[in-house]
Amino acid sequence: MDVIPDWFQRLYESTGLNFTVFYDSYDFQRYLNGLKTTLFLGISTILVSLVIGAVGALLQSGPSRTLRGLVNGYVVLFRNTPPLVQIFFFYFGLGTLLPAAESASGLREPILNNVQWAIISLSLFAGAFNVEIFRSGIEAVPKTTVEAAESLGYTRLKAYLFIILPLALRICLPALNNNLINLLKTTTLAYAIAVPETLYAVKQIWSESQNVFEMMCVLLATYGILVGVLVWIMHRWERALRIPGYGR
Amino acid sequence: MAGTAPPAWTPAKPIVQLVDVHKSFGTVEVLKGISLDVRKGEVICIIGPSGSGKSTLIRCINALVPVTSGTIRVEGIEVADPKLDKLALRRKVGMVFQQYNLFPHKTALQNVMMAPIHVLGQDRREVEERARALMRKVRLAGKEDSYPGELSGGQQQRVAIARSLAMRPDVMLFDEVTAALDPETVKEVLVTIRELAEDGMTCLLVTHEMNFARDVADHIYFTDRGVIVEHGPPSTFFTAAQDERTRRFLSQVL
């Protein structure tokens, strides 16, 4: 029944390669929880950063000078600074400025925990790139197509939602792929504020079991597979969005 | 169709009225005082050499291009009014472009259905019925599920006409709609427009199709360098042009 644990147990005994996660249920559980946290971080930051990108690009092409300036300022700020510094800024900088509640035992309980700060910070980081990526797609939509929508009575917002964004998305999808892959890998930075994601969990395991090399292999394989799955999903999405007779 | 147009002296209110319209792009004045009327059921053709401001003129009418001075009225709506309700205007005015400008990510039928649903909030089933009827009207029954990229230029242009008609406009603007088409497909689009005109649709066309203008138009305007040089019904326009510029243009294109 327990083929895999037995095999890894024997591997350890015969070669000294110690993959604790595959035969020790406690380590396996830690690893699995880390994986779950990584998936939660990855999915939520991808979704939030996509919304930020779409809304930002709409405002950036909008009539309001103030909003355009704000979006541009946001993009510059988050694109020109390191994501790790941003995470520290939010968690240690802003996090301590915000009011906090007190738990029953008298401990300080901030209104946002480290996982939430990581999601906010990483979403804003990737969102800044998504704004620029969406903008490149929007600028490639022919002006005449937008005019056709206008002359049919579409407002700016409706034209954006039903015509410009669907077309822009198809154009910028390859660039978007790259950024979302980077975002998934950048979630490891949440390690720095003790978010128990995969890197954090694996680090705990190797400090206790002294199996750095083995756990490194597990870690690299994990992210290799995670990114592989994301790429596969994005390619399927790309195929699903392909328009017969359009482009290639 | 010619019979439905009221004689020029009747006080019948025009559907579209332009009075002394000027338009400049930077320092270049493209329209230098254009005045013209379009009455209900009329077919008006605007002809003239390229660069004479024909397309700008037609684009001013549905506010795609703001005018510099002068007034444009469409069914009582002041187009140059800064507080213009663009949606109200564009419900009344349909526009068909030289490059069709269909939405490439939607099928032909969806292209026709989109605006009535998104803009007017009409019932999807009722709109679909109407859209299918329009597809038959432009002789594209069977092409409902094709994407624009799978259709020929002439077919795309007829979808574009159906898309405009689905909004039930009072007047249709055609901006050189056959200029990008093969000679063989020009005819199928012109037949569609001619049928529209025969149904009583008010049409304003910028065109290079002189034979079409002669056959279908109630009134022809000749523009050159931003002004209307000459206008008249086709019977006199093509045979007894007064102005030297008109005569030279006609001798080149006829």
From TrEMBL, chain A:
Lineage of this protein's species?
Bacteria, Pseudomonadati, Pseudomonadota, Alphaproteobacteria, Hyphomicrobiales
Which Gene Ontology MF annotations are present?
transmembrane transporter activity
Keywords on this record?
Amino-acid transport, Cell membrane, Membrane, Transmembrane, Transmembrane helix, Transport
Q: Which residues cross the membrane?
A: 39-59, 114-134, 159-176, 212-233
Query: Matching InterPro entries, A to Z?
Result: AA_ABC_transptr_permease_3TM, ArtM/GltK/GlnP/TcyL/YhdX-like, MetI-like, MetI-like_sf
Can you say what this protein is called? Answer: Amino acid ABC transporter permease
Q: Where does this polypeptide localize?
A: Cell inner membrane; Cell membrane
Its membrane topology, per UniProt? Multi-pass membrane protein
Provide the species name: Methylobacterium soli
* CDD domains listed in its UniProt record: TM_PBP2
Which cellular component terms (GO) are annotated to the entry?
ATP-binding cassette (ABC) transporter complex
Q: Which residues form the ABC transmembrane type-1 domain?
A: 35-231
TrEMBL record, chain B:
Keywords recorded for this protein, A-Z:
Amino-acid transport, ATP-binding, Cell membrane, Membrane, Nucleotide-binding, Transport
Subcellular localization, as worded in the UniProt entry: Cell membrane
Main location class? membrane
Query: GO CC annotations?
Result: plasma membrane
**Sample GO molecular function, one term:** ATP binding
Q: Where is the ABC transporter domain?
A: 16-250
* InterPro entries in the cross-refs: AAA+_ATPase (IPR003593), ABC_ATPase_HisP-typ (IPR030679), ABC_transporter-like_ATP-bd (IPR003439), ABC_transporter-like_CS (IPR017871), MetN_ABC_transporter-like (IPR050086), P-loop_NTPase (IPR027417)
- Recorded superkingdom: Bacteria
Q: Write down the membrane topology.
A: Peripheral membrane protein
| Pfam annotation, one family | ABC_tran
Q: Which family does it belong to?
A: Belongs to the ABC transporter superfamily.
Protein's recorded name: Amino acid ABC transporter ATP-binding protein
**Organism field:** Methylobacterium soli
